[in-house]
Structures are given as structure tokens and as C-alpha cells.
């Protein structure tokens, strides 16, 4: 159990303790317990950390792409809206779950919460 890589377990949305059980019950709802090792996951709270990272990463990518497109192609404004708004929304939805998994796994790995200290 000590050999679980928190980054890989988080990206795969797996239990931070064993790397086997599912971390989430739904899209972003953390499960109550790991079905493989029985770890109580109710203590897991990533807060706003994943959302902040996603906002910064997706915002930087979208702004850079929009600027490159604007300075090279000079499209009308509606093209920017059609391209970058849906792309930003889809990229945000795609990255949010793995980033939340990584944050929770890193919290567990680094014992960043009193609840994790009691269980480990």
C-alpha cells in the first residue's frame, strides 16, 4: 500500500491508499468508502483547489490560442465565441475530475488532514 503513486492514482480516479477502488461515486462526488481496502473517503475534501488550477490552466490555454488565432487569421468575433467558449467548457469538464482526484490523493499521501492521520 505504501507504493501507490498519488499522482497516478489521482489521475486514474482511484483510491489514494490502495490504488484499486473507485474514488468517486458520481462525476465529482467522492465515495464514502473504498470498496477494495475500506478506506473512509468521507474525510476527503479538496476544496476549491482543483477548480482554481483548472481555471488558470484552461484560461491560459484558451487566451493563448485566441491571441494566436487573432493575430494570424483575424477572424470575426463570432468565430472566437464559437471556438473558444465550447473548447474551454469541454476542457474544464474533462480536467476537473482527474485534478480533484490528484488533490485528494496528494492530501492522503502527505497526511494533510487530521482525518487522514487517524486512519493511516
From TrEMBL:
Keyword line: Membrane, Transmembrane, Transmembrane helix
Superkingdom, taxonomy of origin: Bacteria
Transmembrane spans: 51-71, 77-96
Protein name: DUF983 domain-containing protein
Taxonomic source organism: Phenylobacterium montanum
Source lineage: Bacteria, Pseudomonadati, Pseudomonadota, Alphaproteobacteria, Caulobacterales
